[in-house]
Amino acid sequence: MFDENKVETRLPITAVEDIYQHADHLRSTVSRYLAGSRSQAATPDVVVPEPTSAW
Hints:
mainly alpha
């Protein structure tokens, strides 16, 4: 797990179902990464060519 400062904390998981105990923390971590990527994403300049007629 990572916090807001990207400091790692390791949590023991002995069974697959144990991940549900950490669902809220996982969701908040993913939300932070998604929010950061949206604000840092550069919008590329898209150039759309003019339609040409082959006739």
